[in-house]
Amino acid sequence: MLSRTKVKEKYLFSIVTILLLGFSLAISNISITMAKETLPEDNSTTLNSPPLQLVVLYDNGSYFENVHWETIEWANVDKVGIKRADLGRVGFESQYGCCLWYPLGFNKPLMFIAQRLWGKVGAETHNFYVQGNVAKTPFLHQQNDSWTLGWKGTITYNNYDFPVSIGVKCPTTGDRFYYKTNVTTPVSVDNAGIEYLLYANPVYAGYIAYHANNIRLYFTNGTTKDYTINRTNLNLTYAIPNCVANIGIVTDAGEEINKFDFSDVFNVSINQWLRIEQITLPNGQNTYVLRVGCAFGPLLAGETLIIDPSTVGTRSRLIGDLNGDCKVGAADIILLGHSILKRPGEEGYHVGADLNGDSKVGAADIIILGQHILEKCMP
After folding, report:
1. Are residues 296 and 357 both part of a single domain?
2. How confident is the model at residue 276 (pLDDT cuts 50, 70, 90)?
3. For the segment 138-160, what is each residue's pLDDT rounded down to a tens digit?
4. In this model, does residue 61 exceed pLDDT 90?
5. Do 244 and 367 share a domain, yes or no?
């Protein structure tokens, strides 16, 4: 594990500049349609309501609560989420799969989260959004103490297919939501990382600017410290101190505005950083985005990066999964066959086919793949 750079306290003041100015829609190649975001205001708590409810907003504006999973008309869904009476509603919009949160009393989402995967392949550095306008298979995992809602799909980038699984966990108790991410890389990547982009609904920029007065650091020893927001030093990158376990956005009254928990990804990554950027949207509006980056070191072809609050984050490689589809089968056998007797750099060589790490592909690699045939990734 690499140590994280210690940050002086004066730098921590600048981290939260974004919150006085209001951070807004900041992803130029992801379009969030604002017209269909309105839900009924959520101001009341029904004593007989279940702890968690499934809620759906359809394309035509129809909104339903306490929905049964099997009755959802997925072809017409705009947003789907989980409602908890004391936290509001958290879920996903269907087109790109961005996570969103409706606090209590809000009829539009206050906050969105998107993710970007980045890393170095050879001499080139690449990054792409984990979310995208692709076919998605939704899932809902229900346990006694929590529900996890999300989707699975495949993001194609640079002629490679990256199987991804994105979810948000809503517990029945506590005051945080947890973000779940599984990404399998079909190609070996150096210095891999995930970048979380947090941005606010432009409708509530004034609310953020007025109410967000402090950033709270949660330290590994269980203590916290609040830092008052100032207006200096935008567009600078700051390392997160290794004594910080989580970050929060709070008002002077101590009310938490950001309900997403970063402790799991902090635990499994090597180092982390924060950056506040001022950008100009296509419509000419100047705005700000808060970026939280987490680095994990190299990932091998077929390795799956797992950020999961139920496992506290792991990295697991499905040996023999050369094409990154989360299973070992005929397609992987074909890829390995094309690489037989070839070395890195030769035409037809697949970077993940050298399963025993001896810089060539031969009988030993065939045996290893055969030992894992029909295996699948963790769900």
Report:
1. no
2. low
3. 999 998 899 999 999 999 888 88
4. yes
5. no
- The mean per-residue pLDDT over the stretch 34-39 comes to 42
State the Cα–Cα distance between residues 254 and 168, nearest whole angstrom: 24
Average pLDDT of the residues in 308-320 = 55
Phi then psi dihedrals of residue 86, to 5 deg: -100, 0
Most confident of 12-21, 67-76, 235-244: 67-76
Torsions phi, psi for 297 (to 5 deg): 80, -165
- Find the Cα–Cα–Cα–Cα dihedral 297, 14, 126, 197, rounded to 10°: 100
Q: What DSSP designation does 31 have? A: P
C-beta separation of 104 from 88 below 8 A: yes
Q: Which two tokens stand for residue 11?
A: 């730098």
Read out DSSP for 42-83?
-----TTS-SEEEEEEETTS-EESS--GGG--GGGEEEEEEE
Query: Within 10 A of 275 (CB to CB), how many other CB atoms are there?
Result: 17
Pair 337, 285 in one domain: no
Residue 337 in tokens: 């066959």
Burial category of 62 from C-beta neighbours within 10 Å (exposed 0-12, middle 13-18, buried 19 and up): exposed
- pTM equals 0.69
Q: What is the amino acid identity at position 196?
A: Y
Alpha-carbon distance 144 to 69, whole Å? Answer: 17
Whether 310 is covered by a domain: the verdict is no
Together in a domain, 289 and 359 = no
Residues β-bridged to residue 317: 303
Q: How confident is the model at residue 282 (pLDDT cuts 50, 70, 90)?
A: low
Phi, psi (5° rounding) for residue 369? -60, -40
Nearest to 37 by CA among 110, 140, 104, 135: 110
Cα distances from 339 to residues 158, 263, 346, 366, in angstroms, run: 20, 41, 9, 11
Q: How far apart (Å, rounded) are the C-alpha atoms in residues 55 and 324? A: 33
CB 92 within 8 A of CB 115: no
Q: Which residues neighbour 173 within 8 Å (Cβ) at sequence distance 6 or greater?
A: 145
* Tokens (6 digits) for 214: 């402090």
Q: Which domain holds residue 327?
A: 320-371
What average pLDDT does the segment 58-71 reach? 94
